[in-house]
Amino acid sequence: MMIRALNFCCFAVTALACLALYHVSEQTRVARVQLLTVQRQIGVEQDAMRVLEADWERVSDPARIQQLASVKLGLADTPTLEVASLELLPRRGDAKSAVVEANAVAPARESDPRLHEVSLHVSE
Can you tell me the mean pLDDT for 15-37? Predict the structure, then answer.
């Protein structure tokens, strides 16, 4: 009788171990399916990112931006001249030495018709 009880306990422990193993196996299978789904989504997102990066490279091309600025906004690629002189700046605390008008003339070269007279007018 004691041997039957011991056999029954061993059978019950074995059955519980089999159920626990099946449960772990099923959880592993579900986790594997979820992992494959997430990896597939990552691949789709990476493809979309590659497409967006290529599109961004095309859109942010400086030559394209310059061409759009000239066509849509009427902006031209003209050289600029900086006119600055320390003598023209008013001194601190001196209200009489305010800049009234400052002019600079850049000689136009025959080869580049885009150069024009540059004037800087500052009034009080």
Answer: 97
Inform me whether the pLDDT recorded for 108 exceeds 60: no
Amino acid at 11: F
Closest CA to 102 of 116, 123, 78, 81: 123
Q: What is the mean pLDDT of residues 35-52?
A: 97
Q: Which of 103, 113, 110 is closest to 79 using CA atoms?
A: 113
Report pLDDT for 45: 97
Contact 90, 99 (CB under 8 A): yes
Nearest to 120 by CA among 77, 74, 79, 81: 81
| Burial classification of residue 11, based on how many CB atoms lie within 10 Å of its CB (0-12 exposed, 13-18 middle, 19 or more buried) | exposed
pTM listed for this prediction? 0.46
